[in-house]
Structures are given as C-alpha cells and as structure tokens.
Design goal:
With about 45 residues, this protein is mainly beta. It is built from no helices and four strands. The strands form two sheets. A two-stranded antiparallel ribbon has the order 1-4. The protein has a two-stranded antiparallel ribbon with strand order 2-3.
Length: about 45
C-alpha cells in the first residue's frame, strides 16, 4: 500500500484559557492555529 502525501492542512482548536466562574465568557477560551501533521503508521486523519 502506497501512502499519498498529505497537503498542509490547518486546524483551529478551541482551548480552555481560564476556568470559568459561572457562565463561560469568550475570554475563557482561546483559538489557536495548528498544522495537521501527516499520520504516523497505524493512524488516520479524519
């Protein structure tokens, strides 16, 4: 089975920046930009 190269894909995960007190606010979250790396043997990218 031949592996085809994966183009550079960007993901935008939201991460908890601060523990919310009561209802969450936009400042409780951060959004980053990360590259999706090619999968290792036995892994898949969905």
């Amino acid at each position: 089975m031949q592996r085809t190269p994966v183009s550079t894909t960007i993901t935008h995960p939201f991460k908890l920046a601060a523990r919310p007190h009561g209802n969450d606010k936009s400042t409780d979250w951060s959004c980053t930009e990360e590259a999706v790396h090619a999968p290792a043997k036995g892994e898949v990218v969905i």
